[in-house]
Structure formats: structure tokens, C-alpha cells
Amino acid sequence: MAAIFEAKGRPRFNPLIAHVADLDTAARIAAFDERARALAQAFWPGPLTIVAPIVDVSAVCDLARAGLETVAIRVPGHPLARAVLAAFGGPVVAPSANRSGRPSPTTFQDAYPETGDKCAAVLDGGPCQVGLESTVVAVLEGPVRLLRPGAVTRAQLEAVVGPLAEADDDAKRSPGRLALHYAPDAPVRINAAAPGEGEAFLAFGPWPAGEGVFNLSPTGDLAQAAANLFSHLRAADRTAPVSIAVAPIPDEGLGEAINDRLRRAAGFVG
Ligand code: AMP
Ligand code: MG
Questions:
Q1: pTM for this entry
Q2: Is the domain of 41 the same as that of 86?
Q3: Domain for residue 30, yes or no?
Q4: Taking Cα atoms as reference points, which of 69, 33, 66 lies closest to residue 141?
Q5: In the chain, which residue ranges form alpha helices assigned H by DSSP?
Q6: N or C: which end of the chain has fewer CB within 10 A?
Q7: Ligand 2 centroid to 197 CA: how many Å?
Q8: Are residues 91 and 23 in the same domain?
Q9: CA of 176 to the centre of ligand 1 (A)
Q10: Ligand 1 and 100: CB distance under 6 A
Q11: Residue 260 belongs to domain spanning
């Protein structure tokens, strides 16, 4: 367990997500009320993480929970992740394979140089299909709170549990909501109409191809942009630009999660 924090250089106060095989297992580990169950039924297996009060403290240790009385749980959809869970038989805490604070790797090629040499075994399940981290919601007392926007959108969640509460003053509950997260080496300039001198450019929508131009989605498709976001940020960074300019991304649907990651990559608190 400690080796995960070590390999990622992850601060001990940032808890991990416990991955389990199914809702029954999750509900034995944590207190899942009706809302948590409804969300799990709607979105599991899939990229939704539910934070709920821990019940079985022996299932997910203190270090993994960063000492919190809550636990973050998810049932992943990827066949390789499911096979690992089936083979292991218990909850598996599994963060992204980046060094802490850097953009999440979405391919084997991006993951291996970050933490590969610190792992006992490395599995290649192909490129990530969603490309963004899971949505994190807290289902505790009071309305459901969105702690981290992600692949499951606000509208999808609200269709199941009604209006969500904001989590702006709630950073402590989800320590991953830190500014300067997901950041490449080069500075990031968001909402840029066009690249400046020496800048790489993450375009969105029609844009002439050229040196230093990485188009998140030439057709302006948010799902495609999400899938490309981190690999393009990394590719742009490798050209050692003065900075990375990023075109405006509409703040709707998946765009909310994309903009959240971009604001953090740029060092603005989201
Ligand atoms: P990552 O493993 O990089 O996807 O990050 C996991 C995310 O879940 C981070 O934002 C954590 O802070 C958040 N998280 C994990 N456990 C909890 C918890 N018990 N309460 C609130 N947020 C949590
Ligand atoms: Mg991560």
C-alpha cells in the first residue's frame, strides 16, 4: 500500500479509490443509502466513484483512506480491471499511473515512463476509452455533492438523484481537488483563440494542421476531446514549447470535466 504512494510521490492525505467487483461487495464495505444504490445501479460498471461512510474498516485500510471515515468506491468496466478484481477477490485500490500532480497517462506508452519501473508487474489494456478520471460524488448527509466532474456528467447524475450540491468549499473531502494537478512541464494557457509565438496549440474544432498543433477533436466532439486530452497535453509538452495554449471548450456535458482538468493543469483552483 505504502508503495503506491511512494511510486506516485502521492501525498499521504490524498486517499485512493477502492475498486470492487459489484454493488453487493461495495455495500458490505460502505454504507450505501438509496441514492448511492440508485447511482451505482445506473452507472456501474463504469467511471463513477461513490464516496460513502466506511463500514468495514478492515476491507480498505486507513492509509488507503487517508484516515477518513469515508471510502471512495467504484466498479470498473474495463475487462482487464475486472479480471484483476476477479483474480484477487477483494477490493483493489488503484490510482492513475502518473507521478502525482502530472497529467494522467491514458496509454501504456505514457504510463510506463512515469511509474513502470516502480511496479512489480505492468499490464497493457490498450488506450483508455474515456480518457478522463472517474466522476467522484459524495453520498453522505445532505444532498449528493459533485467532488470531481468526470466522464459521467452532471446531467446524467441529476437525472438519477436530482440537483447536486456544489463542492467548492469541500476540498478537504476530496483532496484530489487541488490546484496545479494534471499539469505538464510547460505552462498552460486556457481559452486561447489562437497560439502565440513559440506556443503549442491544443485546438478544438476545425483548425489548420501544422507544427505544434494538436487537435483534440477536429469535429468539435467532446467525447473525442476527452479521450485525447491527456495524450495531447503530453505530446504538446514533448515539443518543449514556451507554453501550451488551449482553445475554449464548451462547458457542457463532458466539457465540464475537460475544463476542470484544464483549469488545474493551468494552475487555477477549479
Ligand atoms: P485518483 O486515484 O487519482 O483518481 O484520485 C482519486 C480521487 O478520489 C481523488 O480526488 C481523491 O481525493 C478522491 N477520494 C478518494 N477517497 C476519498 C474520500 N474518502 N473522500 C473524498 N474523496 C476521496
Ligand atoms: Mg490520478
A1: 0.91
A2: yes
A3: yes
A4: 33
A5: 2-8, 23-29, 34-43, 79-88, 108-115, 154-161, 222-238, 255-265
A6: N
A7: 32
A8: yes
A9: 6
A10: no
A11: 188-266
Domain count along the chain:
2
Instruction: Determine, yes or no, domain membership for 247.
Output: yes
CA distances from 59 to 39, 54, 113, 139, 140 (A): 22, 9, 31, 19, 19
- Please indicate, yes or no, if residue 123 is contained in any of the structural domains: no
One digit per residue, pLDDT tens: the chain, 270 residues?
A: 788 999 998 888 889 999 999 999 999 999 999 999 999 999 999 999 999 999 999 999 999 999 999 999 999 999 999 999 999 999 999 999 999 989 999 999 999 999 999 999 899 999 999 999 999 999 999 999 999 999 999 999 999 999 999 776 554 456 555 556 788 999 999 999 999 999 999 999 999 999 999 999 999 999 999 999 999 999 999 999 999 999 999 999 999 999 999 999 998 753
- The residue with cell 484516515 is 67
Q: Is 254 in the pocket of ligand 1 (CB under 6 A)?
A: no
